[in-house]
Records
---
Amino acid sequence: MEHNEHDQLRRKVRDAEMKNVAWNREDVWSRINGTAPSKKSSWPYAAAASFALLATVGIYSWLSLQRRETNLRLHSLELEIEKARTSSSVALSEKTPAEDCETTVAFAETTERNPLVTRKMKSDEHAQPSTIAETESPTEVFTEETSVAVVLPLETPNQTVATSTESQQEFTPTVITILPPDPAPKVQVARERKFRFNLFRKQHEPLDRNDNSDEILFAIIH
Amino acid sequence: LNEALLVKQCQQGKRTAQETLFNRYSDRLFRLGYRYTKSHSDTEDILMMAFVKILSNIDKFTYQGEGSLEGWLRKIVVNEALMWLRKRHNFNLTESIDSAVPEPDLSSFEQLESEDIYQFITQLPPGYRTVFNLSVIEGYDHREIADLLQISENTSRSQLFKAKNLLRKMLVQEGFQYGT
């Protein structure tokens, strides 16, 4: 009984709700349009996000590589400067007073590894054979190895040895002495030996010579 | 467009289908909301929020035959209307009624036109109107109404009893003979 009443009421109310009513339908729809999400394909956003991520990673890697190369270059330059300072101070303190020379170290910006050490003599009195290197040009190029060739005159082989100072403790100079030419070269010895052999052969003329007679005679001489 | 195709196109995000859905159901849903709020502007707000939820969640809806879409739409609008009412009306009533008292007879409403019934319902006070709508028109039982309005079942039963009594008085005032 009660359910039938409710069903009839429900049906009548639903019928009443089917009728048109005046209200701001367009306004409500425009508000819904402004807030309701419309489903769009998400792959353009995903592609854009992926591209941005890849670009970020690429730029970061490139910047890291550039920074690492710069650091390596700076480090190598610092090492070169240190080596050049050490070698120049050692060489100058050996023969030439420091106050008499001006040493400049020039580094090219390229990848040249060897610093160019330029030594200019202030006065002519130091441009003597007793100085470190007798060069026509005041410019020397030092190699990367920490060795300095000191050329000494033959008359005074024991005169100059690198004296160690406080600034040269880490440096070990290599002293190279150019010896005088050999007074009895090998050619002269061979000639004397050949001369004696000829004398010996003239004295033993009757002897029969076979193929290995020279070897035998050579063995007899020796 | 039939309902199934309309739902499918709405789920695909087609704006024309969404507009068709709105134009097809908005009038009856507006009157449904108005039955709860008795306010045009508030009903428009409720309808706007309800359709935003409908269009956002329509991909979760499974079409189960004719009428299922409208039932789903009505449920969302009713929930929005109840949320609106809970903010503006205190349903925390502690009224109770003896369950032995029989509910008033509404058989005389069969003589009324559907529009008159609709108007009578909208003239009820908010508490009575809400429980009457939920119980008689929407078909919820008292336990469900108690959960929706966060009141006790006895309060729901009492509100329905008083709503029916008030409707009967309205009918008498309008000149309808009630009972025999």
---
Amino acid sequence: MKIKTIDFSYVFMLAVGIFILIQTLLISQENLLAPASGTFIPFIISILIIISSLFGGFKSMIENQNAAKDDKAPKEKNSTGGKGQMTNVLIFISGICIYIGALPLLTFIPATVLFLIGTIYYLGKISFTVNLIVSATTTIVAFVLFAEIFNIPLP
Amino acid sequence: MDIFQQVIDPFMNVELLFLVATGTLAGIIVGAIPGLSVTMALALILPLTYSWDLLSALAVMLGVYYGGVFGGSRASILVNIPGAPSSVATSFDGYPLSQLGEARLALTLTTIYSFIGGIIGVIVLAAATPLVSSIAIDFGQQDYFLLTMIGLLLISSLSKGSMVKGIFSACIGVILGLVGIDSLGAGPRFTFDTTILLNGIDFIVVILGLFGMSEVLYQIYILKDEKKKAVLTKIAAPSLRFILKFFPLSLRVSIMGVLIGALPGAGGEIASLLGYDHAKKTFKNPNRPFGEGAHAGVVAPEASNNAAIGGALIPVLTLGIPGDAVTAIFIGALFIHGLQPGPQLMQENGELFWFMVGSSFLSNIFLIIFGLLFVSIFVKIIDVPKQLLYPIIAVITVIGAYAINNSLGDVVWMIGFGIAGLAMRMNGVPVAPLILGMILGPLMETSFRRQYLITQGGGDFFLSFINSPISLVLTVFFIIMLVSQTQALKFIKNLST
């Protein structure tokens, strides 16, 4: 059996199922299998995840092996982005994290303007003038709408 | 005659007309902004109405309610981010329609059928309140359990691709819904000995993360790929014949929606999902397969969720029981103004009920006016470069998460769910069943355990599922759903041939 025939998403699902089962077992003062207890449904759910992930994993493995024999591409391939796109996502997530960290320090308006200018610039294809205008306008409109009209106390 | 005068009261008073119109427009705008829920909008408006008279407060709140539920479909169709939980089902065919260049048609259709659904809901609210409330009040715990299980069986309809991954997603949703203090046993569950999880995980945070942030991240992930650009056709006013084609379907799903809305705990979210499922099963010769841009796929959930509003108000006004979070805020508003929702309210303040019926009619009229007038404005969202749109949506989701408790902690949770949602999408795990599981899971568990405790287990527990007409009907319906939604039917057919 080649390792590439395993769909690791099912392995992850199995791990999650086992994790939930362990967490259910750790819930104290409960009779695990008593239907009226707080552990019964979580126990059933964890078993359902484990069984379905094993079923799905084996099914996927057989399908992938058959596909490999017939020199076909693997059946399940959902992602369409590549390494570059993943870098974009990671940088965008980092930008959001920095933005969240900066909110209490810089307050809403400067932090949001900087975040928008930075992310729009990074994603490209927008002129810097348009970037500046959109970032500033969006921030002001958002501030007026949420802080002034909806009375949300923004940081 | 008195009743008629009370119903048309909001139509004759300029101030009330203005308040309903403002509330409806504000609701549409808030509902259309991804991450801002109608629940949050009403919760924010409630403190503002402390000093208002009751009729003005109710006029605005009803406007926001109808407008917000309707507005949620705008973002579902245009950017595949449901503006409200009840608009999740609208995105299944709404977004594909948008991608196929029929966004304008989808927005027009949803406006017309939201109006029709809303009006049907109001008519049922006005005419059948005693009947529906008497059915809802007779529901036992076993009936709620069956109802939630039927809802969970919809997973197979929601799961595109792997059924196993759909089951996994729903199971995770159920577990997330159970995090926190056990409502019956009072002990903590899945809290990892921390206090921050004792109150559970906020549903709005999960919605914002899975449908807001993860959508932004996923779109950035595929940003440079070749993608079919939405081409807008000028279909502002479809023919009357085309519109009427969906009328029988809208009638069925609206009646379904109003009945589901009347059940405590089952609001617009479940109504729209069941409405979509009903359309998928019964609508013959759709223009395209469901999930790929079927017109009936946007008509059914929108008619159903707007009709559910009328249904949700029935138990609130007659029994004092909220159908969902929004109607719970309505009950709060009535308390603030010194009224006790329940059977006494109808007897002592009957005029209030008829005023609400009138305001609801009016709100639906404003809904169709604003909805059709602003089609072009909403469509223009598609033309905004994605490089501009997604950072802006990210900021709005951050604000939406922050606004729940004025806490950056909720924002961190939302981003966590966003990253999890991205991982799910990249691995073909659907996110919609997770939301369904989170909504239905706690209700399913509580009703199951309560019924088990009431019957003390054993044979009585199983007999309770068939010993009342309501339970029997739901049990038969559940079995039919189980057989039709799973591969059991295929298995039985194979055996017979």
